[in-house]
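May I ask you for just one protein sequence along with its backbone structure tokens in two labelled lines?

_____
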Amino acid sequence: MPEAAAQTVIDPATALPHVAQPGAMIAPARTALVVVDVQVDFAAPHGVVAGYGADMTESDKAVDRIEDLIAAARAAGVTVAFMRVMTRPESDSQALKTWMARRGSPGGEAICRIGSGGEDYWRVAPRPGDIEIAKLAYSSFHGTDLDMQLRARGIDTLVMTGLTTDCCVDSTTRDAFHHNYHTFVVSDACAAAEPDLHVHALKAMAQHCSLLTTSAAVVGAWRA
């Protein structure tokens, strides 16, 4: 019997509409690369998410590409903005605690606690002149001065990356749209705990508030 032919695994995200040549749409002078929640608890093998048994393979790949994007952004003079969850027990909202309890996971909100090490950046780090935002909620705009800092630099376009596609990347991208920013989600520089969540979140954002692109397309545009 002949051996079965090897099957090529196709990433369903690539079937979604992407901007292949973002070019002038992400001009360095008016664009920020937004790095969402690349932190120990979300991305590291010893973080909280990995401790729940999540497969970190796709997160690792996304962070690889984020590192490349950060380097390209710095070389091109693009503003780099780092978002980071920073929590204390007293800062957890009642809505969050009640939701966790009702879904059967009381205490599950204890993530990225200040002083635990879980709130630290993972494999990325800001430099002087970058934007840094400490946040409590999914959206990086909620309760922060992100909008003010972006406006002060003349930025009207955001290139979105980070973790997770379906939660904080999605929430920040939608909120950016509501704040009148043009957004590009870098589909291969984001990840979620489950592949379906990643793809469905990308599809929803592409349908309603953002354009999708790839890390290679963004790097190419900034190098040009």
In short: The longest helix spans residues 57-76. The longest strand covers residues 182-191. The mean pLDDT is 94. The chain has one domain: 24-223.
